[in-house]
Design goal:
By secondary structure, this protein is an alpha+beta fold. 32% of the residues lie in helices and 26% in strands.
Length: 129
């Protein structure tokens, strides 16, 4: 469907707007819950990648029709993703916690030069295939 190359957290607003528009099409009504969840997870995981993953991030969103795959890639293969536990909400780090609550599946892998955190979601009704 789409790939974004993010250089800084200033790029996150555009990512959120693009993901929402892609998943809802040109509907004027408020996005459904699955769209909101996917937009939130994309933003949170991209934020984590930018802050802790070596400076830039790449976000891929694809679908096969009934499911959407979100992949967030950074340049920190030696820094595995960590689920935030026993932290104040102001300290951040809740991207994986949110993903585990919203996505159907969550996982990650690394190569020699990058790390990819991925989530699988039920595709919104209006998402293009």
């Amino acid at each position: 469907m789409r790939t974004w190359h993010l250089a800084s957290t200033r790029d996150l607003a555009g990512l959120r707007a693009d993901v929402s528009k892609i998943l809802t099409g040109d509907r004027a009504s408020a996005p459904e819950q699955s769209v909101d969840g996917l937009v939130l997870i994309a933003s949170e995981l991209a934020t984590n990648a930018l802050r802790h993953g070596g400076g830039s991030a790449t976000v891929h969103l694809s679908t096969d029709g009934p499911t959407c795959l979100l992949e967030v890639v950074d340049r920190a293969p030696g820094a595995p993703p960590q689920v935030a536990v026993d932290r104040d909400s102001g300290d951040g780090g809740f991207g994986l916690v949110l993903a585990l609550g919203v996505a159907r599946e969550v996982g990650w892998f690394r190569t020699e030069t990058s790390k990819c955190v991925w989530t699988v979601h039920t595709a919104p009704v209006h998402a293009p295939s």
